[in-house]
Write a structure and sequence with these properties.
398 residues, alpha+beta, Creatine Amidinohydrolase, Chain A, domain 1, Creatine Amidinohydrolase, 2 domains, six-stranded mixed beta sheet, five-stranded antiparallel beta sheet, 13 helices, 17 strands, 34% helix
Length: 398
């Protein structure tokens, strides 16, 4: 069982406090309510609030279950809170007399909850959006976090290693996905996947093949798919996998709360020359990113250079999704959530910092072959990118 070290928690708290002081105007306290953000600073996923002032000890206010939170968290001030009505008292004890400027995660806080907190805290409290402060601190990983991501990558090694065994029988993509997800679970994956935002869903793995895999879907992912029915109109389906048709295996590792993202290709029979050319093109895009990304790289520029290479190689139509439905990125940060910041996409102009963990995923949607691509997770180091998902990129052929 992994517990958050006290030194790691303290580092995170001091980092976000520096941003609170630098905000204009400054933020007096953070009141964090989203489970992942509370976990990031407190080390506990129990239900509650984290009240983090400009100084002193943060206070973890637990609604359920106090005993578990007290055991899990390295914080000294962990208290039960039976009623939200007690919240103003705790804010006063942390911040002193009002007025207060309280930061909350307004990107995920429902409007009804926001109004309730505003009413509870009173007219002398301003609720400010602290989303960027929290996500900025989370965007740079410590060595302790990077080790958790390495562990996460290990949970999907058996998925790709044992895929040939499961591919020998006639199966649908849905059955293959279920078997491979089971293999991840038996190697230590708890089955959880966490994403930020409203209406954002994702499974442990995505397995699609052929024309149905290249169907556009409602999700903002390069892989679409037919899915089961209108209630789940994305991903694997019950059609049998055809011989000589590429199969894409996109899986999320998970360990200690952290994710690693990895994609490999497979086929029953022959991986055609056309499919091989597409795959080589996507690998070339990935190799370019590996050569050029370092601290100081501008994500939007990395994206533009990737698009230029795609255009030169003739892969514009279908790059990062079916034509007319492509997503506008080639990579995203990963950590406690799959879709962290920054994103390798237009308008992301802040230079990358050492410690940022990126999942780079050039993919191509072909109307007949399906989706073909590659994805690895890396950490940005002073010397460039360090690969965290080193499993072979060779196409799995059965």
């Amino acid at each position: 069982m992994t517990f958050l070290p006290s030194a790691e928690s303290a580092r995170r708290i001091e980092a976000v406090r520096a941003l609170m002081r630098a905000a204009e105007p400054p933020v007096d306290a953070l009141l964090l309510v989203q489970n992942v953000d509370v976990f990031y600073f407190s080390g506990s996923f129990q239900s509650g609030h984290l009240l983090l002032g400009a100084g002193g000890e943060p206070r973890l206010l637990v609604r359920k279950v106090f005993e578990r939170a007290e055991e899990e968290s390295p914080l000294d001030d962990v208290r039960p809170m039976t009623s939200l009505k007690d919240l103003p008292m705790h804010v006063r004890e942390i911040c002193g007399a009002p007025p207060w400027r309280i930061g909350m995660e307004l990107d995920v806080l429902p409007a009804r909850a926001f109004e309730n907190y505003r009413r509870l805290l009173g007219a002398d409290a301003e609720i400010a959006d602290a989303t960027d402060l929290v996500l900025d601190v989370r965007s740079v990983k410590s060595e302790w976090e990077i080790e958790r991501i390495r562990d996460a990558a290990e949970t999907v090694v058996p998925v790709f290693r044992d895929a040939p065994h499961f591919l020998k029988e006639a199966r649908s993509t849905a059955e293959l996905q279920a078997l491979l997800e089971c293999r991840a679970r038996t190697s230590g994956h708890p089955g959880a996947v966490r994403m930020r935002g409203m209406n954002v869903e994702c499974s442990v793995g995505v397995v699609v093949s052929g024309p149905s895999g290249a169907l556009p879907s409602h999700g903002f992912f390069p892989i679409g798919g037919r899915g089961f029915d209108p209630a789940v109109p994305v991903g694997a389906d019950l059609q049998a996998i055809r011989r000589d048709t590429p199969i894409i295996l996109d899986f999320l590792g998970f360990s200690g709360g952290y994710h690693a993202d990895q994609t490999r290709m497979a086929v029953k029979g022959r991986f055609s020359e056309e499919a091989g050319a597409v795959y080589a093109g996507m690998q070339e895009v990935l190799r370019q990113c590996e050569r050029t990304i370092a601290p100081g790289s501008i994500p939007s520029q990395v994206y533009r250079e990737a698009v230029l290479l795609v255009e030169e190689r003739g892969f514009t139509r279908g790059f990062m999704g079916p034509e007319g439905h492509a997503v506008g990125f080639i990579g995203h940060s990963v950590g406690l959530e799959v879709n962290e910041m920054p994103v390798v996409a237009p308008r992301f102009d802040r230079p990358l910092r050492a410690g940022t963990v990126l999942a780079l995923e050039p993919k191509f949607a072909h109307p007949d072959l399906g989706v073909i691509g590659i994805e690895n997770t890396y950490v940005v180091r002073d010397g460039g990118l360090e690969l965290l998902t080193p499993h072979s990129e060779t196409v799995i052929v059965v």
